[in-house]
Amino acid sequence: MTRKTNIEISREEDFTKILEIEEQYIQQICSDIIKLKPDLVITEKGISDLAQHYLMKANISCVRRVRKTDNNRIAR
């Protein structure tokens, strides 16, 4: 899932708040994945360092930047 948003930050507090929101969002997505109890997560895009950290703590391996054709083969 990719989300693109443009924002303008004028104060340091705003930047800090945005980072906190991003961290909470990543933690929630990782929690949802962890609940499914996979051994491996494969993605066609990158995985943030924070997400890798949460998944690694749950003993979930990550493979990132897999080509779409390879991903389709894996899904079969």
UniProtKB/TrEMBL annotation:
Keyword check for Transferase: no
This protein's record includes keyword DNA damage: no
Sample GO molecular function, one term: ATP-dependent protein folding chaperone
One Pfam match: Cpn60_TCP1
Transmembrane intervals: none
Sorted UniProt keywords: ATP-binding, Chaperone, Nucleotide-binding
Protein's name according to its UniProt entry: Uncharacterized protein
Organism lineage: Eukaryota, Metazoa, Ecdysozoa, Arthropoda, Chelicerata
